[in-house]
Amino acid sequence: MNSDKIPDIIIGRLPIYLRALQRMADSGLKTTSSQELGELVGVSAAQIRKDISQFGEFGKQGTGYSITYLLEKLREILKVNRIWDVALIGAGDMGHALANYQGFANRGFKIVMVFDSDKEKIGQKIGDFTIEDVAHIVEKIKAADVKIAMLTVPASAAQNVTEKLVQAGIKGILNYAPITLNMPNHVKVQYIDPVTHLQRMTYYL
Amino acid sequence: MNSDKIPDIIIGRLPIYLRALQRMADSGLKTTSSQELGELVGVSAAQIRKDISQFGEFGKQGTGYSITYLLEKLREILKVNRIWDVALIGAGDMGHALANYQGFANRGFKIVMVFDSDKEKIGQKIGDFTIEDVAHIVEKIKAADVKIAMLTVPASAAQNVTEKLVQAGIKGILNYAPITLNMPNHVKVQYIDPVTHLQRMTYYL
DNA sequence: TAGATTGTTAATCGATTAACAATC
DNA sequence: TAGATTGTTAATCGATTAACAATC
Fold first, then answer.
1. Where are chain A's structural domains?
2. In this structure, which CATH number among 1.10.10.10, 1.10.443.10, 3.90.580.10, 2.40.50.40 belongs to the domain B3-77?
3. In terms of pTM, does the model score above 0.90?
4. Among A121, A153, B124, B188, which residue has the fewest nearby CB atoms (within 10 Å)?
């Protein structure tokens, strides 16, 4: 156990462990080891143990880790033992795909509002949501006390929207726009750009 | 200049530099510095210089880097000074969003075939493509000599499809299924799972 | 008990930063 | 020329791995 600041690189691996453990639980397994979990996620057993031990002693010598117990602990650590409301900004194809995605709910997230700037789209429905005017984004997000946003607007609009999101009290942004955002330090961003991921692989081809 | 093996972490930053430089070029800029580029992408100037200098001497003391020249060099290094054909597997919402995405072409990629296993979907159109039966995926990909795939099938199908992709000679997979894939070492994978990205942020909230 | 596996320490390995001579 | 900025070296910082006592 270690109460110092945990490196971000470790935090980044925990969701991967969580995902693998959930699959093990779903297939009825009760117990695992650092060895087995490591093989499943492509990480050394030593690293699995080191990462987990930052937060406490969750295993047992000789038998390994109880899957449900470790799941519970990881969910606590990552604060996904609850449901986070999420605002979606940008009702294009990607926005639609995310709005319809069934995989959020059981992993801690729920889209609760959708915004766009296109007059044609405002007022229309995506699944259960009515698309709202991005002009009202600051007050709507504040009123709903939403802390997480997913951004699927064009690159040209992303920085501008980001500033409104910060103003609205958003603390974490999952950014699908292909641009690095300029942000205050207290707001976290994660980037998803399929092209940068593809370009990372072509180097090796 | 350094001819040893370049660390993957450096390769991972190059697409980010490339993206920022492209934006600078689009807005008419001719020249930049490690300082300026670093601020734009959130990386130290020293690191920008170190990363770039792995591949040659592309800058000039006193004046910095020519944007078009550095763009050209980075595209060469990443092998995106050409267009890569890409196979898309999974014609769900995410598959549709990717098939319709206009941002691939000018950054080195082009979807050329779409597969699904759903009899209802096979034969239907997505944009310009007719959805093909995943049962024929190995011969179709081999025949077209495609080396890169994007995987947007459910987690339960992903490992199975991956094995077929490897058999078909695919060398890089962009995986949207929320599961770690088991792969031979000579095939590269990149993972995109919005939930793991979100869970990485909630820790800090 | 004997075997298995944890949590942790120390050693190794790798990445980042600071500093500056070279030079445009 | 004077000012700016590169490419590179050495120092620092951080992450990973190997090894093993503790113990279930």
1. 3-77, 84-198
2. 1.10.10.10
3. yes
4. B124
